[in-house]
UniProtKB/TrEMBL annotation:
Superkingdom, taxonomy of origin: Eukaryota
A Pfam family of this chain: RRM_1
Subcellular localization, as worded in the UniProt entry: Nucleus
Location (main, coarse): nucleus
Family in the record: Belongs to the RRM U1 A/B'' family.
A GO molecular function held by the record: RNA binding
An individual GO BP term: RNA splicing
Entry GO CC: small nuclear ribonucleoprotein complex; spliceosomal complex
Protein name, per record: RRM domain-containing protein
Keywords attached to this entry: mRNA processing, mRNA splicing, Nucleus, Repeat, Ribonucleoprotein, RNA-binding, Spliceosome
Domain (RRM) ranges: 19-98, 170-244
Amino acid sequence: MDSPNGKAVELGVPLDASETLYISNLNERIKLDVIKQSLRGLFKNYGTVLDVVAHKNLRMRGQAFVSFEDKEIAALALKEVKGFPLYSKPMQIAFARSRSDAVVKKLAESGFEEHKLGEAPAQTHVSWNNPHKRKARAKHNAGQAEGGVSAPVAKRPVVQMPDEYLPPNKILFLQNLPENTTQQQLVELFSQYPNLTEVRMIPTKKDIAFVEYGDETSSGVAKDALHNYKLDGEHKIKITFARK
């Protein structure tokens, strides 16, 4: 007779694995409810799916969590689905670091309140031990020890998100255009893709322009197709989504 962990060992389940899978590299252009429905439909072939969690905030774009009733089901799903091209992007899958709320409610309901209460202290502990915060506290304490008055702690500079990681929208920002580029040239180039509404040139900056489409799906298609396109055979056009 197999030991309780026999099946888990056979499937290569880590001893600290949870019943929840962490999915990344999901197609960010697909609506969130469609992604969640697709994940549920895909993974229900392996067993009961307790929950599918995905958030629309920028930090969590392209990521989701899928929870099952037990680790063996999660392990089998990970093994067989990892790399599956969902909406043309191969999914990256790993075991989540902790149990999801749905799993705790299902398998250890009596400990659910303790599970929820344990999250806040853990987050506080991580924040308190952040290397940058430790360094700031050390400077503060050193200042008090020397003169009784601590030096002001410098504020961290605001880091602007690189253009390449801006969220999709219907306006494209073009850079590195040849100086002799005309509006008509850009209209002809971008009208190959549906729903083009406007091309705006900047009179004082001849190497940049804005191209607007009727929706962000259309702008995304044009962006992917024409990024690094050589309009004059030499200059590669850099295309990103415009900042809102």
